UniProtKB/TrEMBL annotation, chains A, B, C, D:
The gene is LOC107939672. Keywords: ATP-binding, Nucleotide-binding, Nucleotidyltransferase, Transferase. It comes from the Eukaryota. Belongs to the bacterial/plant glucose-1-phosphate adenylyltransferase family. Pfam families: LbH_GLGC, NTP_transferase. The keyword Transferase applies. Residues 73-340 form the Nucleotidyl transferase domain. InterPro entries: ADP-Glc_PPase (IPR011831), ADP_Glu_pyroP_CS (IPR005836), NTP_transferase_dom (IPR005835), Nucleotide-diphossugar_trans (IPR029044), Trimer_LpxA-like_sf (IPR011004). GO terms for molecular function: nucleotidyltransferase activity. This is Inactive glucose-1-phosphate adenylyltransferase small subunit 2, chloroplastic isoform X1. Heterotetramer. The keyword ATP-binding applies.
Length: 498, 498, 498, 498
């Protein structure tokens, strides 16, 4: 069992902050980060009655049944308010290509499958088309075993309810009638755009052994994201019991170092630790919280979890020490790809190692054809065509075509959905002079090139002016954290120097 | 080639009618019927330029290529403003069970497959969960052949566009970026909730031979639905060219008989014929109309088709003489089931005959167990349990359990998603005394019993007061056109007499 | 834990019987029954060395790993020397249709899947075409989960080995190079033509807890098959340790009652109990026995098991008390179908109940159409057409067509692979006046009608002369145990009285 | 329409050669090559009656129906007498890996699919295990469309027939009861181990237009294989009608050049051209020939085709001018791989180009990881791990691991079925010091390294003694045509110099 490595006692207080929530299209807020100022009004007094204890409701599952019959996963396929734009211009976060052959959501779904959880509901609404398509092609029955499924629940209209999901809690509440189809014992709520490798069975085991109502997975690893605003922060005691759920805000950062020095009363019995937005929650507890206690709660973390705490429920933290990346920004995404290459032990190398498989759409591509390439510290996807080129520290995606003389370094090339000429899937209307792929004698450094991009000849994508942030979307690219991001299907004319 | 059997000349004019459109959640309005008063403002002057002629744009497909490579179908999976409530309470029209083993949308998708069209996009938004689930389980690759797919495009939010589809034209416009993936020559627009058997290849052949911009399939069969309000009506000349697209409204019905007698000038060169809401339209024409000419059009029939006519495009009618039912009401749905039983030649017997298969989710149910049953003129789905009972003129759905002494006549029993006790999929929380199925000594006449209903013992569902229309939803049923409709998962206590 | 109900001490001795083996095409002899006289020459002296103990070989699997990763099943898909002729004329035993919708082998494969064993090798050679086809269609990935498969290993020729499998041991030995692909801990050897429902996980648990080399499942139920010749009989002590493996022969029946009275010394510490031909055996033990100790053994039961006993290995019996039917004869097959109907608790009702699913090819047939039928105590498969007819105590298979006036009692109608007219799969060459199905006014009693049979009008299949056994194959039928068996695709002309 | 480029008139006569056939396990002899001396005794006199004309039998298919409903392919999955040993030691020819990601048979099956033929029977018997497994995994429904299948028919025993297939004609005859399931108009007989890209629809069109009984595809391309012994040679007239079918034997080579000069009477109306072993034959003709006229014929080419000619049937040649390779030897296989790299226009570049897909098992491998490689003119399969190495003119198969310092040139590395350590599929018993893959500082030139081979460190596989042919099987390799062939799973110890 992991141990908390940080001990601090300063109680984080955000309760006084007034907020104005615009419930536009934020699915993920409570799932690990949160960008809004928000102060949900919790009911001041809750009856401390036994009805909150789901264990008193006759549990249909005895003796800790097999995980694949007793736990259903709820994956949020898309975040919103994403800082991953422009990668999310036409797709949700979960559908972003990563590590040459995969989509981001494959990491979480594969975690489920490898943890023997095969009842998986994916809730989607934001730019969901490509994600829905990916999920139904990648996980249709095969490899999910008896009664296993990945079921996409897209936001929908109904006679009672015409609007979009208003947050994570609202989304789950509206889908409860579907989610309750199988008599599972617990729901496992998962953000779909995080990158990590976890055996959820250990979380389930801990949850059941401790007879918790809710278990929250928290990151005990050495990551930098506890400095981020919007991250949910758990105050836990030495038994890993969660005492408080807070949000790290812009103005009031949780400075752990300071927190520790400010410890009053020498009280080292509490720690602050960032939530990973992963919740294991008893089925009956879920229904009770969403329908009875907080029927208007929209966000899961700030409203439902806080509410459960206020009701005196048993909320525990499960500390996870491995690599965890929540793709909170273009830079984080870029780093995750670079770490995939480096195969650092501390990094999430799930895509690149072979310990346990990461699933995705099974494909049938021809082998990669290499004419004359020097390739260093790179990862090459299926079915590429690499002419005379140099590739270094780069993730090269499926069907990438790199032409003579090209030099690619420190970059992420997402590849192409099609072979341009050969299979005729290209639009007949658009007639373009620049073909899909990387043109002759083109140089690319520290860039992300989205799918189906058409980079001409003698192009330099090198951030020549060393811009930190720049929106050149009309020209087909964006600069974010000094990283050049070429848009999906963008066309960069010959001889451009960016 | 079918011949028009009605010849009339009165020009139907609805152009003067002012309308007030409430763009709530109407996906299907223009697809064969229309309930709103509406008068779209067409641009007064259109350049009669060659740009309208899609044939001048180099067509990527020569020599009438195989249908499966050159046509993509766009199926509207759900109507709204449905008069099929309560069958649509938790599902869209396309997901309504029909003919024991099927869902309504299976008819149209199977028409596509049997017509060699294997690129099928299903656009959904209204109560779409069950429909999405059905489509992805039923049509995941198998039987769709090389590069075939049924791709569900659920309504979604995006940075540019936060709202729901605002009608059929709007839905197609927003999805064009997906629909244009393959270089098809034509799009085939299809309502997903109609019942008929058609070889679309004949429509395509006619369209190509006549070099039409748009071909609209119109019903030349002997049906009663040309009396319905909201039906789109085509005025066609003797060459089947469409001269006008009108809506039949409440106040201003198209009385064909009268129309004929009112013919002025002895002009018998025009006919009025109801549109089936099926449009075959050249790809470039579609893009032009939606993006360039009518970028704000919401409805396909009243706005885009009328607009195309006003632009002088070549719009032709293809006359279809077979059985066609558009499920416009509970009664129509009920009759379609009864006709399925009767296997009338005029009726749509596609589900019941074996001429060409209707596809659905492949299943693996045990055989039907019959203890002692007299069964007359009925259709029995897979995996039923029929104890000592009498069944007459009834459609019995999958997994239906009918207990001793029950009598069922002239009814539609939709069956159950689960075997109640045995597979444990029932919610553990809900404890109910009435089991799923039809109880002992219960009598049911002229009723539709939705899925998973629990009908107790000694119940009579006979519309005892001969009510025409009645909303007893709180009691678990609704009366529509004297047909008793028991709601999904409703529980009718023992000894009830309805 | 089941208790032995028979206590006897007479040591069964068959060792003196000289035998003449004709190794024609007997795959299954040792798997539960044996028709040949045979006396394998066991090596007279075996070193009682530790090398026999597979536990000393480092076991790759620790801590009793999940069954689906540590056990592979070897299913013998076909018996030979079958007494099920003519049902086996064109198919192996495992491919015989049973219970309307299934094939015999589905019972064993479903037992595996329901026991979480998902690595299944099916060894076939005798009339294997239909069985191979069935297995690859029914179990291709779906429902088998991660890394699960049903792999058909058909007998094959190779440079080293030109002949057929010479028995069960020989078949396994030749396939070891395939079977060893996954590092499983144990192999589970299963006859594919038996009918029973068993959770093999209990066998595995017992085997591992007792640290056995080999566990043999033996039937402790009340069955009549211990009177059959050829059944393997285990002599076990009170700890269920196997002391001896014998064959019940024609001339020297194991008369248990007599055996008991002949008990010498009042020694009640031994029992005789029939083997079910199910062996769980450690992987290393299997390899050792087949390759090192008995490299020429052909039959698993009489040679390898006896050999293991002679080597002093730890061979245990697992007693199974449920229903078990090994389809040793037409009569047994007929009774199994009748019991399926009766759903006796003592009978194998797996096909008819819904406790745990029996898998087979997922299908997509139209519902059964019933015009006017009285059906009693019967089971009806998918997609039948039942006109005005009476059906009693009958198993009606898929796509059966029964015409007006027909009466069917106490029979097994296997149905049809095709709908005759509609889908055109019928041979165009064969022009026949009698259509597939049961003709008008035909009467069938106590018969098995194989697939695609064409029974004319006014036919009586009633065994009019009360024949016990009769070979009328030229006329399209066979009589076995007074049961009329109409051959596959046979044509019985109008007005025949059989 | 291709034109014959060779014109010669010498009638090739082999009829006088007495032969002694050893019908061991030769499946493919007549399919393009033949090693045996053989003189089938044709019936001396055949009635030239109309019964031979299949067109008089009412053809169920009118108006040239769609190919996918009217033609079934019969693919011979395995040859025997193969000169591809040791690649065929544990597999049939069709299962040999080629072009990194494929198996040889994928070429022919993909030709079928791309020609819209989706009813494919694969007849197998020789070392068929891996082939059967491949086919059922690669072609189970997906991409085969409505009613499409690849059905493996393994040789089997039956009551009537205990032996193996005795040749191609015998194999088809025995399987006719299966092959006749669908009412196709023609059978297309295909060797499964040839490499070429052909649209069979053109052959079918020619066959139907010319109303032929049999159409034989013959190679009109510039290949060297017309010098091979055992090739079937067609004598055709200027209308491409086949006049004679001969075998090119060792002693009596068909020397085309000489043939031409020896032309008597200046008769240039005949040509000799090598058969590709591809036969399109009317269904009824097939049945007639195999069952009625030549019920004992074993080989299709030498017996059935010759017989058909002697009966006066209309046998036509379809001339194919593209690349064709029949993998008659290790050298031919090696050259085919090299040509795949070179992408010569004259070569079969189907695997490497993207014109039309070649299908195989869909996979889900991680991207190839490259640490520091110089790769020239090579093809890299999915999921490789390439450390600091140089690769030139080499086909690198799936999951190949190449370690630091290795140099590979002009070679075919087939890769591995597993990742050695990571997924644990390796046998636990075999403990080996040399891991799977290519060891450090190892040098490989002009070699074929079969799957799962373990090449140690500092090894040189360079044919140091420049041996032409050599059998070092005990040492893990064979030399054939100066090409080093390392056996499947062979272990080459560190520092070996071969």
């Amino acid at each position: 069992m992991p141990q908390t490595s940080l001990m601090m006692t300063l109680q984080f207080s955000s309760s006084g902050t007034p907020v104005n929530v615009q419930a536009k299209h934020f699915l993920i807020p409570g799932l690990g980060r949160y960008d809004h100022k928000y102060s949900p009004k919790l009911p001041s007094k809750f009856p401390k009655a036994s009805i909150f204890n789901s264990h008193q409701i006759p549990n249909p599952i005895l003796h800790q049944p097999p995980v694949n019959q007793s736990v259903a996963a709820i994956v949020f396929g898309d975040g919103s308010e994403s800082r991953l734009y422009p990668l999310t211009k036409r797709r949700s976060e979960g559908a972003i290509p990563i590590a040459s052959n995969y989509r981001l959501i494959d990491a979480v779904v594969s975690n489920c499958i490898n943890s023997n959880i095969n009842k998986i509901y994916a809730l989607t609404q934001f730019n969901s088309t490509s994600l829905n398509s990916h999920l139904s092609r990648a996980y249709s029955g095969a490899s999910l075993g008896k009664e296993g499924f990945v079921e996409v629940i897209a936001a929908y209209q109904s006679p009672e309810d015409l609007g979009w999901f208003q947050g994570t809690a609202d989304a789950i509440r509206r889908c409860l009638w579907v989610l309750e189809e199988y008599p599972v014992a617990e729901f496992l709520v998962l953000p779909g755009h995080h990158l990590y490798k976890m055996d959820y069975q250990k979380v389930i085991e801990s949850h059941r052994n401790r007879k918790s109502d809710i278990t929250i997975v928290a990151s005990n690893g050495i990551t930098k994201r506890d400095q981020d605003q919007g991250v949910g922060v758990l105050k836990i005691n030495t038994e890993n019991q969660v005492m408080q759920y807070s949000l790290k805000s812009n103005k009031e950062p949780v400075n752990y170092a300071v927190a520790e020095t400010l410890t009053r009363c020498n009280d080292s019995s509490y720690s602050y630790i960032p939530s990973m937005g992963i919740y294991l929650i008893n089925r009956a507890t879920m229904v009770n919280l969403l329908n009875n206690h907080f029927p208007k709660a929209m966000d899961f973390g700030t409203e439902v979890i806080r509410g459960a705490l206020s009701l005196g429920m048993k909320v525990e933290a499960y500390l996870f020490e491995g690599y965890w990346e929540d793709m909170r920004s273009i830079e984080a995404f870029y780093q995750a790809n670079m770490e995939c290459i480096k195969k650092l032990n501390t990094g999430y190398n799930s895509f690149c190692d072979r310990d346990s498989p990461v699933y995705t759409i099974p494909r049938n591509l021809p082998p990669t054809v290499v004419n004359d390439a020097m390739i260093t510290d790179s990862v090459i996807g299926d079915g590429c065509i690499l002419n005379r080129c140099k590739i270094k520290s780069t993730v090269v995606g499926m069907r990438t075509k790199i032409r003579d003389g090209a030099i690619i370094e420190d970059s992420v090339i997402m590849g192409s959905d099609v072979y341009q000429i050969e299979d005729g899937r290209e639009s007949s209307i658009k007639s373009t002079s620049v073909p899909i792929g990387i043109g002759e004698n083109t140089e690319i450094r520290k860039a992300i090139v989205d799918k189906n991009a058409r980079i001409g000849k003698n192009v330099k994508i090198i951030n020549k002016d060393n811009v930190e942030e720049g929106d050149r979307e009309a020209n087909g690219y964006v600069i974010s954290g000094r990283i050049m991001v070429v848009l999906r299907s963008a066309e960069i004319p010959d001889n451009s120097i960016l």
